[in-house]
Design a protein that fits this description.
It is a single chain. The protein has 696 residues and is an alpha+beta fold. Helices cover 45% and strands 21% of the residues. It contains 21 helices and 17 strands. Strand 13 and strand 14 form a beta hairpin. The protein is rod-shaped.
């Protein structure tokens, strides 16, 4: 599609003018060649990319601009081949809409594949993040399980010590069931002269004097408990106190009763504050955990002692253990004696330091090493004292998306506790490069699609260019290595020649001649497309085209198209003006007959027509008159049968044709379109003459 470059034109002009031209004439030629290049590129590019210079400038001004083009970036640089190519490419896309459709489909496939690949990689990243979180969750679970096993083993060691002490086994029978004969009675608030507020707090305290304060009993329990608590401390389990509740009554506590926060003899089974917990413990089959929470406890003041009532009554207050974690275990003695407290001996309450329990397990430093992870320890079967059910959490875990947690269950033996450890990924399961990856996928898809579009446009441009040189059928055969030769029974051939061309070319500069021919023949080319006829070639000032070949159609229709084309060429030529304002004159000739069409040669193959019909058409042009269309008898007969037009044809008479002798010729002066009714009547007579029979 690209016009001839200035360098090629310069060499052509130099060869034609000869090597004897002087330096001044060479300068004029170069200037003229550059002007011709500008003119050709403007016509090939359609719309103007840069502002046009005033065409009324004289020749000297244009040459002066050319000499300064390299330093001033003159108008020649505005019409580079790249600029022309961009305009032609856009024209190719507009002319072939399937390129847009194919490009959109290709972009959808490439973009979908690239985004799909990004999503697959992101999915693998999320799966690896979940696997990592689950791995750390299982390791954290193992740490907590080991610490819990150590704690429960220490508590079971204490319980075995209680089993082996005969005095401890007899305590429930000595305390008895509340309000039963022979059992330890509840204290009377009047014995201590307490006001109503403090008296209400002693309502559920039983008098266990002589039972729970037996020095031998206390000493035996302290020995057993201290051994168990010391062993637990050696294993990193810090127990605040271990309190015995035979029949649900506070009796013994190690290291001291004050550390437990209870009053001696407090009946937790009847105390509304603790009765719900005691009921749940004695109905369970294993240990129950409570906390870590702030648990209010009534505590016995040192002066509130049944052995020393005369010492006065101190303040009864509330103690808050912020990090207290309570474990309740129902005690069942191995003997066969029946126990009235729901068939249990009683309850063992153990209070641990929750923070030290976590540090002892090693879970806190374990997760502190990973800044990209956080954990949450949650109780699934929470109690009324810990509605939130959160046991522990690492720093900054609140900033992690709840959807980015992987949960691991913790089920401890001999307990009814159900804990879950959640490990969250700080950056989430979506990779940090996800949005960038999607954007890059789209950009890469656009880039690849642009290459694909460029390839399609280039391929289509080459195809269109070849189709402008060779017919489609000929091109198809040549691409398959076959020889193209085809016979046509009746076609109509047109020749055009410029009157006085030899004189004009001798008076004009070569570039002016080429500019004139280019301007004129471009207009003629447009008319060939309008009338659906095929341009064969131009030889100098001669122009040749044919109707009914290579696309076959009925011979009258082909002749009609060529005749209408010739009339439009005459009309266009009458209004065409040269740069100096002079008018161009032409001769036209038409002939119809049988031809042979083929492509000759391998280097720069050319579509050619062979036969006497071509020669006669050329003679019709050469013997015609200025601005006249001369046709032969064969064409005249076809035009009389034209399907859509009535032609104004005047007989010229007999003329002498070189090599053929005398021939009767006609002048085509005009055409009138038939009425619709006439066309319908003709089509009913012979439908075959009204349609094209295209040979695909």
């Amino acid at each position: 599609h690209h016009p001839v470059k200035p360098r090629m034109l310069s060499s052509i002009v130099t060869r034609r003018r000869g090597s004897a031209t002087g330096s001044a004439s060479s300068m004029d030629e170069n200037a003229g060649v550059m002007m011709l290049w500008d003119h050709l590129t403007r016509q090939r590019s359609g719309d103007e990319f840069c502002s046009d210079e005033d065409e009324s400038d004289d020749e000297s001004k244009k040459k002066t601009r050319l000499f300064h083009s390299s330093s001033e970036h003159s108008w020649v640089n505005c019409y580079t081949p790249r600029c022309v190519t961009a305009r032609i490419d856009r024209g190719v896309i507009c002319a072939h809409r399937h390129i847009i459709f194919a490009t959109v489909i290709f972009f959808a496939i490439i973009c979908g594949a690239s985004i799909g690949t990004t999503l697959c990689v992101a999915r693998n990243y999320a799966r690896e993040a979940k696997q990592m979180a689950y791995h750390y969750g299982t390791m954290g679970r193992q740490l907590l399980t080991n610490q819990m096993d150590t704690t429960l083993n220490s508590i079971h060691a204490l319980m075995h010590g209680i089993y082996d002490d005969e005095m401890l086994r007899d305590i429930p029978f000595r305390i008895g069931v509340a309000d039963q004969p022979g059992s330890a009675p509840f204290l009377s608030p009047t014995d201590y002269n307490l006001d109503d507020e403090h008296a209400g707090k002693l309502r559920y305290v039983r008098n266990v004097t002589g039972i729970c304060d037996d020095p031998t009993l206390v000493e035996n329990y302290f020995k057993t408990a201290n051994v168990a608590l010391h062993a637990a401390r050696l294993h990193g389990v810090f127990i605040h106190h271990a309190t015995l509740l035979p029949n649900g009554v506070v009796c013994l506590s190690s290291p001291s009763l004050e550390s437990s926060g209870y009053a001696l003899g407090q009946d937790l089974f009847h105390d509304p504050h603790d009765s719900a917990i005691i009921e749940k413990v004695i109905s369970s089959t294993g240990a129950l955990f409570y906390g870590p929470i702030q648990i209010p406890r009534t505590h016995k003041h040192s002066n509130l002692d049944v052995h020393e009532p005369e010492s006065g009554v101190g303040d009864i207050g509330w103690e808050k253990n912020h990090n207290e974690w309570l474990i309740y275990i129902p005690i069942d003695m191995p003997d066969s004696r029946g126990y009235a407290f729901k068939n249990h001996w009683g309850i063992l309450e153990v209070s641990l330091d929750w923070d030290k329990f976590l540090h002892g397990s090693g879970i806190l430093p374990f997760f502190e090493q990973r800044n990209d992870l956080g954990f949450v320890l949650k109780r699934e079967n929470g109690d009324e004292r810990s509605p939130a059910a959160y046991l522990a959490r690492s720093k900054g875990v609140d900033k992690i998306d709840p959807k980015c947690f992987t949960w691991v269950e913790l089920n401890y033996r001999d307990t009814e506790e159900r804990w879950t450890l959640g490990v969250g990924v700080a950056n989430g399961y979506r990779p940090p490069w996800f949005c960038l990856g999607i954007g890059m996928s789209i950009l890469i898809s656009l880039f690849v699609t642009s290459l694909f579009l460029f390839s399609l446009v280039t391929w289509q441009s080459h195809k269109d260019f070849l189709l402008e040189i060779l017919p489609a059928r000929a091109l198809h055969k040549l691409c398959h290595g076959e020889v193209y030769a085809e016979k046509f029974d009746i076609v109509t051939i047109f020749f055009l020649d410029i009157v006085g061309y030899t004189r004009m070319s001798s008076e004009m500069q070569p570039y002016q001649v080429m500019k004139m021919l280019n301007d004129y023949f471009i207009q003629v080319d447009r008319l060939t497309k309008k009338h659906q006829i095929y341009k064969v070639e131009t030889i100098g000032d001669a122009y040749m085209c044919v109707g009914g070949c290579p696309d076959r159609c009925m011979s009258p229709l082909g002749a009609q198209r060529v005749a209408l084309f010739a009339l439009d060429v005459i009309e266009m030529t009458s209004s065409f003006r040269l740069d100096d304002g002079s008018q161009l004159l032409i001769r036209c000739g038409i002939n119809s007959g049988r031809i042979m069409a083929g492509v000759v040669g391998e280097i720069r193959p050319h579509f050619s027509l062979f036969g006497d019909t071509v020669n006669i058409a050329s003679r019709m042009e050469s013997t015609s008159k200025s601005m006249k269309i001369q046709c032969s008898d064969a064409t005249y007969r076809l035009l009389r049968d034209a399907p859509d037009y009535d032609f104004n044809i005047i007989e010229r008479g007999s003329i002498t044709v070189k090599g053929l002798g005398e021939m009767n010729t006609w002048f085509v002066n005009g055409a009138t379109k038939r009425r619709t009714d006439d066309v319908i009547m003709d089509s009913e007579k012979d439908k075959s003459t009204q349609s094209c029979d295209y040979d695909r």
